[in-house]
Structure formats: structure tokens, C-alpha cells
Amino acid sequence: MRLLIGAGGTGGHVYPALAVAEVLHKSGDGHELTFIGTRGGGGFEKQLVDAYDVPFAAYGEVFAGPIVGVNPLRAISSMVKMGLGVLQAWQFMGRHKPQAILLTGGWANVPVALAARVRGIPMLVYLPDIEPGSTIRVLSRFAEKVATTVDASAPFFKPGQIVATGYPLRGAFMTATREEGQACFGLDPARKTLLITGGSRGARSINQAVEAILPDLLADGIQVIHITGQLDWDRSQAATADLPDATLYHPLAYSDQMHLAYAASDLAVARAGASTLGELTYYGLPGILVPYPYAWRYQRVNADYLAEHSAAVRLDDEQMADTLLPTIRRLMYDEGTSVQMKAAAKALGSAHGAQNIADLLLEMAQ
């Protein structure tokens, strides 16, 4: 089958797309896979695609930009880009003739969807979050089916349109062990491990809150994997330079070994992007989730979903100064709560999301 995969903007869109591509490639059925991302986005998507062990037959880029929630001048500029993007996507499809298309979100998907509709190519959209943002809502109008992480997304779409597939995890996530994670990060197997991460771009408010309580955490004997994000690395390093005993502190600007970080950890403090729904739950890892406050409400909805299922605790940015440390201590040392949350998280996880989405896409291509 000739299959086109489109994603752009953030790792939250690109990684699920790559997970599905990995399943299709490893099936051994000789599918021709092509990928289309954002032109002028700094090469972010292409870096991820090139680093991944999936041989795409071609990589394309289209112009695109945000229309909702921006000033009028930028919206006009984005509409012009979208027009060019439709032409670019049309030409790309003309060259590679995909039989079906998977779109996982990002502005670059909109011109792809428009071109595909005109060409009559069936589309599958994947929504990683609970609640769709404006882009996914637009894409769903052109899609035959919408794959979702959970059933709770059904009310946002037409009756019968969604298929709850689970979150598509990359293969490395399903083979990582706790022992491998401990070895990778130089951890003591006898100690509790706390993972701090703000996603692919980092989270300054989380970093600052953690830096303020690091001496207490280390004094408690907790070892900390702290992924600061590239943009906050220098500032965070300066802020933690005078720790009295930093042997238990493992800071990183970025890690491409997140599967091992999750596998090695007992608790995570993180934003509530879509990956938390699939990755934390697969490992049965309890989370303290801090939704990003300056964007669409989808992170709050994700955090609330996990909290309502007893798999996580939600804290907002303004609460962290007073409540982050006691919440970490409670979830780390109250064995009853910890065991209950791990079981609740594990019950929400799925190992089959990528395969389920791949099967749906192939069904549409026939």
C-alpha cells in the first residue's frame, strides 16, 4: 500500500505518527510510506523523522500557519501560506499517489487534508488528547474516521466517527525494563526515583518549582531525573550549581531515552500533553500533572481525566510553590496510595494503539 503520514509542530504530533509508521514498516508487507511536515518550521519534524529507524520513500513540506487565536495580520499571512500549502500537498500527492492518509495534527495537516479531499483520498485523523483543538476539529470534517486515545473523546465528533484505538507507542517503549533504565541514568536500584519533565520544549515554571525543593528531595534520599528542556538548560544549571550533595541529581537538557526514564521511575512530575495519556499509563507510572496554562484547555482536560481515574494528581502552576513538595512526599511514601495509583494508571494503558491505527489505515486504503 502507498500511505502518506502527515504531522507537524511538536513532538506530541510527530511521535505518534512515527509509532504507526514503525508498525507499518515492520509488518514486512512492503508498504511505501511517505511523510509530509511543515515548511519553515526550523526543520523540527525532519530531524525527528531522519533520526527514526523508518525508511520513508519521500519527505515533503508544506507552508502553513495558525489562523485561530492570532492577530489579524498573522491570520491573513497564514491563509496565504495555507493556499500555497494546498498546492504543495496536491503536487506531492500527484507524485506519490497515496491510497490513504494518516494525519496526527499540526497546522501543516490542514492544506494536506484540503488537497486530499479534492483528490478523493481517504483520510484517518488521530486525536492524541481527550478534547480536540481547532485543527483536529477542522480535520475531522474531511476524515472518514477519527482514531482516539480513549472513548471519552466521542462527544466531540459525529456519531460513529471515532474508533478508540489507544495511544500509539513507539516500539522502544514496549521493551524498556526498569533495570535498563536504572543503568542508563546511573541510578541506585535501592532508592526511589522521581522524573521531572516539561515535554520536548521544557517547562520553566516546573523547573523553577523543582529547583526550589531540590535540597529537600535529595535530603530525603530521592534520586531525581530532571529533563529541563534546551531553552532552560543554562539557567537551570546555574540555579542548581550550589546543591550540597548532587550525587542523586541527574539533570539533562534533553533525552531521547524517555522510555528508559519512565521505566526507571516511581513518580513523574510533568505537563499534561497527549503523551502522558499513553506513556505514563503504559508504565503504570503515577503522575503529578501541571497543565500548561497559556494554551487551549486540552492539557487541563487530559490531567483531569487521569486524576478522575485515580492515576494522577493535578496541580496548577500557582499551586506548586506550596503543594509540590508535600504531594511528592505523599505519593512517594504512602505505599497504599502509590500502589493504588500505579494499578489505576496501568489499567488505562494500552500496548496496541499503533497497531490498531495501522490496521484502520490499511482498511481505508483497500
UniProtKB/TrEMBL annotation:
Catalyses which reaction(s): di-trans,octa-cis-undecaprenyl diphospho-N-acetyl-alpha-D-muramoyl-L-alanyl-D-glutamyl-meso-2,6-diaminopimeloyl-D-alanyl-D-alanine + UDP-N-acetyl-alpha-D-glucosamine = di-trans,octa-cis-undecaprenyl diphospho-[N-acetyl-alpha-D-glucosaminyl-(1->4)]-N-acetyl-alpha-D-muramoyl-L-alanyl-D-glutamyl-meso-2,6-diaminopimeloyl-D-alanyl-D-alanine + UDP + H(+)
Q: Name one GO molecular function term.
A: undecaprenyldiphospho-muramoylpentapeptide beta-N-acetylglucosaminyltransferase activity
Q: Does the keyword Transcription apply?
A: no
The broad enzyme category this protein falls into is transferase
Q: Keywords in UniProt for this one? A: Cell cycle, Cell division, Cell membrane, Cell shape, Cell wall biogenesis/degradation, Glycosyltransferase, Membrane, Peptidoglycan synthesis, Transferase
GO biological process assignments: carbohydrate metabolic process; cell division; cell wall organization; peptidoglycan biosynthetic process; regulation of cell shape
- Can you list the GO cellular component terms from the UniProt entry? plasma membrane
Write down the Gene3D superfamilies for this protein, in alphabetical order: Glycogen Phosphorylase B
What membrane topology is annotated for this entry? Peripheral membrane protein
Residue intervals of the Glycosyl transferase family 28 C-terminal domain: 193-356
Q: Name one Pfam family in it.
A: Glyco_transf_28
UniProt entry tagged with the keyword Protein biosynthesis = no
Per the entry, what this protein does is: Cell wall formation. Catalyzes the transfer of a GlcNAc subunit on undecaprenyl-pyrophosphoryl-MurNAc-pentapeptide (lipid intermediate I) to form undecaprenyl-pyrophosphoryl-MurNAc-(pentapeptide)GlcNAc (lipid intermediate II).
Instruction: Give the UniProt family note.
Output: Belongs to the glycosyltransferase 28 family. MurG subfamily.
In Swiss-Prot or TrEMBL terms, this protein is called: UDP-N-acetylglucosamine--N-acetylmuramyl-(pentapeptide) pyrophosphoryl-undecaprenol N-acetylglucosamine transferase
Look up and give the organism this protein is from.
Phototrophicus methaneseepsis
Q: Organism classification, top ranks?
A: Bacteria, Bacillati, Chloroflexota, Candidatus Thermofontia, Phototrophicales
